[in-house]
Design goal:
Number of helices: 8
Distance between the termini: 37 Å
Helix content: 10-25%
Shape: globular
CATH topology: Metallo-beta-lactamase, Chain A
CATH superfamily: Ribonuclease Z/Hydroxyacylglutathione hydrolase-like
Radius of gyration: 18 Å
Strand order of the largest sheet: 6-5-4-3-2-1-13-12
Order of helices and strands: EHEEHEHEHHEEEEEHHEHEE
Number of domains: 1
């Protein structure tokens, strides 16, 4: 049976950071602030597949403060963003967390019926790192906690205790045609990216394994990471080999506003939605034509 999926990426907020934060030092140093997108991505099984499922990759945050001290702008919650494409949070069957930084894993409770998938080493190593901090109340002033929200991490621990979380160890197929790919010690301890089978070939939901298209195109890691830049470079090579050197638009980076200029997109409310791929026989959501009423 053919495996095909529709993919939509949602910008739910925006921020401004120094260009080298995501683009890399020194190639993007001294270039001032740039606008970046806060994104998550929805995957829907195509009509040709036996079981209809919705898989959410990352969940954004309920509230957030950047370690740069700048506020995030015009935060939209998942109920509002998903409605732009005709979906509801309670329709989501599975949530895949690429890593546990607050801007990717901070709002999983918005998807009450979904199972949650996370790499075991990501959880175990963050738990160990947090336990070793003498005064965690210092929060984002500590490099170790610069991208963590301890309250949200505690909520995630409760979800683990409640049996909502399925841990995986390494590469795994988590739904038919949707594969998690471990990128250990890259952006974080146990970051992962998601390979999605489609009728035209694989697509990649990169999380923060790839911040910007420029990281892949220049083969240059970002200025900010909590892992190993050499392992990020290996991840770039793996992703490029999968999708093809001339098809990097099939990658959805973690924070690139170019997602919405490189793909068909529309803006409803404060932020855009991109239709990354439409499965054969599925209905396009362009211009919000399947939007739900508030």
């Amino acid at each position: 049976m053919s495996r095909d999926h529709s993919i939509w990426s949602f910008c739910f907020s925006r921020g401004h950071v120094p260009a080298d934060f995501f683009g890399g030092c020194p190639v993007c140093s001294n270039k001032g602030l740039v606008e970046v997108a806060m994104n998550y991505t929805l995957i829907a099984t195509g009509p040709s597949m036996e079981q209809r499922r919705l898989v959410m990759v990352d969940t954004g945050f309920e509230s957030g403060v950047s370690m740069t001290g700048r506020p995030f702008e015009n935060l939209e919650m998942p109920r509002a963003t998903l409605a732009k494409a005709g979906f509801r949070p309670e329709d989501v069957d599975l949530v895949v967390l690429t890593h546990l930084h607050f801007d990717h894993a901070g709002n999983f409770r918005a998807f009450p019926k979904a199972r949650i998938v996370c790499q075991r080493r990501e959880y175990d190593f963050w738990k160990e790192a947090i336990a070793a901090i003498a005064d965690p109340s210092l929060g984002k002033s500590l490099w170790a906690l610069s991208s963590m929200d301890l309250e949200q991490f505690q909520l995630f621990e409760q979800a683990v205790a409640d049996g909502r979380v399925d841990f995986i160890d390494g590469d795994a197929e988590v739904s038919a045609g949707i594969h998690c790919r471990l990128a250990a010690e890259s952006h974080t301890f146990g970051s992962q990216w998601v390979e999605v089978e489609t009728a035209v070939g694989p697509h990649v939901i990169a999380g923060d394994c790839v911040y910007w298209y420029a990281n892949l195109e220049r083969m240059w890691p970002p200025g900010y990471t909590q892992g190993n830049p050499w392992n990020l470079m290996k991840t770039y090579e793996r992703v490029r080999a999968l999708v093809g050197e001339h098809r990097l638009q099939r990658v959805v980076p973690g924070h690139d506003m170019q997602i919405y200029s490189r793909h068909p997109s529309w803006t409803t409310g404060a932020h855009p939605v991109a239709e990354i791929h439409l499965a054969t026989g599925d209905t396009s959501r362009i211009a919000g034509r399947c939007a739900l009423a508030d």
